[in-house]
Amino acid sequence: MSPDALATLPFAQVEIEQRSGESCIANDGLCPGWIVDNLGDYATPLVEHIYLTLFSVVVGFVIAFGLAILAHRRAWTMRPISATTQILYTIPSIAAFFLLQPIVGRGFMAGAIALIAYTLFILFANITTGLQNVPADVKDAARGMGLTDGQLLRQVELPMAIPEILAGLRIAMTTTIGLAALAFFAGAGGLGEPIEQDIFFKSNVVIAGGLCLLLAAISDLILLGVQRFALPWRRAQAT
Amino acid sequence: MTASNASTTDDRQPADERRQQAADLELCEISKLYPGQSDPAIDKLSLKVEAGEICVLVGPSGCGKTTAMRLVNRMIEPTDGDILIDGESIRDRGPAELRRHIGYAIQRTGLFPHLTIADNISTVPRLLGWDKQRIDARVDELLELVSLDADDMRDRYPGQLSGGQQQRVGVARALAADPPLLLMDEPFGADDPINRERLQNEFLRLQGQLRKTIVFVTHDIDEAIKMGDRIAVLKKGGKLAQYASPAELLTNPADKFVEDFVGADRSLKRLALQRVRDIDLWKVAEAREGERSEDVRRKFEDSDLPFAILLDEQRRPLGWLSDEAVRGERVTNDTRSPATPHIDLDDILRDALAELLSNGVQYAPVLDSRGAVSGVLSLEVIGRFLHSAPTESRTGAELVMDDPEPIPGEGDETPENTGK
Ligand SMILES: Nc1ncnc2c1ncn2[C@@H]1O[C@H](COP(=O)(O)OP(=O)(O)OP(=O)(O)O)[C@@H](O)[C@H]1O
Ligand SMILES: [Mg+2]
To answer: What CATH number is associated with residue B377?
Structure first.
């Protein structure tokens, strides 16, 4: 998103603190004392951010999963679904946050729907790739031993697609955590809100921005852990 | 339970057991035309495979071997014709149910990389709803059957196994639910020649115990000759060129196509069908140290070699005796050369020939399973065999047997014995 676009956006700058006293704060500096005193104020935006991200990724995953299974079963649906998710992905996020407001109203849902739309492309692409990467001879052997299509999917294809699925989830999580910082445009709150409220105050930006990064890092670490735990066969092969 | 009830189950028991162990298979005028193709991949193919036999489908690439095999478990649906297993049409059974009762092993094994070896092997038993105890016991039994260490292998993943080990697991998995019929599509195809040879031998030994009905696909005529009780040679378009025992195929190819496919070296290939014990070996004068030389010299009359072999107390060979050794009153241990290599009575003739050639000798003693000398194999003996007309009774089927008993009395009828 270009800085021009930001500048033309009609939002009001709101002072969140009185800055008369200390010079550090008056200079919009990085003030440890202020940070310690005001950290608690960021709890609500943080929780909002987490909730928005998790909700969007979970719902996005459920939808993408359903679509991926559909595309896997009915090959002809692959292209239209893939194209649609791709188009959704290319809509600029800010535009989506604004465009949704007249339809679903300002607030959480406007933010969440836009974020869900973004995750679809990443998740759908990764799940279908995972399913397609299952070697033909493995599927042939499975069918040849009498697994039904459902058993093949549940016992072979999906478990074997887990690496790609988890990779997709990791990208979707970090991307969504980043994009959720803009969800305040839709009135959905999150860590973007305090940033936007005083974008020149370094202490403010560092806390909010730092929490964003920390969130992304922690979620990625958790998924990395899941990946290692869920894929003993991959680990075994590596050693 | 009433007495009459009990007697009916008793009557059925043997028949059921036999059916479980091996099934009769019959392809009746089966045809397959793939959609969008002008010529059928399989054209009115009829084949009968007796229970407990290995039927090898062999032929050039693209002739329809895989297609024919996959028609049997309905991985491919025929355009025409029918297939009967124990007289029942496969059309009457659902594909999944049918497949669970037919073993299936393919070239690249198709092992599930995300499951342990134990879970891979127990795929079909799990589908059939066996309980955990029975499955665990079966997994161990199968691993042992395919010469893998159960404790070591059970919890490994396929990615941690060598190619040969993976193929053994593939075979174990195909055998898991003890199916009466097995389909194998180039199961040893991915291996290097040495490994492949070992897997083939192991599998034949296994089949000696199991006696399953097996449809075995290969494009390699040597493998076909080695593995098959009966060989179906297919031509392009899935036409049956010849269906015969390996020996029959080698001696009487039905037409030019089969003759070319079998190869110009088909008389040499016959060597692969015989064991050393099947042919008439040279006789040799046997001697022990300290024996009266005169006795030994008398044995020369009946011997094909002009000198004697020195044996120990267990009749194991110590060396070829020099002329001086039997010149005095008592036999000395003066040998002209060590009597090596040692050929085993159960060796395949081709391997024995290779052994002679690689050791640069014309002849070598043949030992029985206890290591005692039972004759001498020479290049001349093999040459005589190659020129002789093949005997009808000797088929590849006998090769499959683990330990064929020599036909009693056969040796006594030879002209040398009766003539002298
Ligand atoms: N799914 C398919 N659709 C169309 N044609 C096919 C299909 N599978 C096989 N064929 C064709 O049918 C013929 C027989 O194929 P098949 O795989 O049975 O040959 P094969 O004898 O097993 O060959 P190879 O030794 O190379 O494995 C070939 O001409 C092949 O191109
Ligand atoms: Mg094939």
So the answer is: 3.10.580.10
ipTM above 0.85, yes or no: no
B114 and A159 within 8 Å at the Cβ level: the answer is yes
Model confidence at A235: pLDDT above 50: yes
Q: How far is CA A233 from CA A44, A151, B181, B356, in A?
A: 41, 20, 31, 48
- Give the single-character DSSP code of A156: I
Distances (CA, A) of B59 to A198, B63, B196, B199: 79, 6, 19, 21
**B73 shares contact with chain A (CB less than 8 Å):** yes
**Per-residue pLDDT reduced to its tens digit, A95-149:** 888 988 898 989 899 999 999 999 999 999 999 999 999 999 999 999 999 999 9
Q: What is the residue range of A59's domain? A: 42-234
Tell me the ligand closest to B184's alpha carbon.
Answer: 2
Q: Is residue A225 part of a domain?
A: yes
The interface residues of chain B toward chain A in range 203-262, judged by CB-CB distance below 8 A, are none
CB of B321 within 6 A of ligand 1: the answer is no
B112 closest CB neighbour out of A138, A144, A236: A138
Q: How confident is the model at residue A236 (pLDDT cuts 50, 70, 90)?
A: confident
Strands B285-288 and B239-244: unpaired
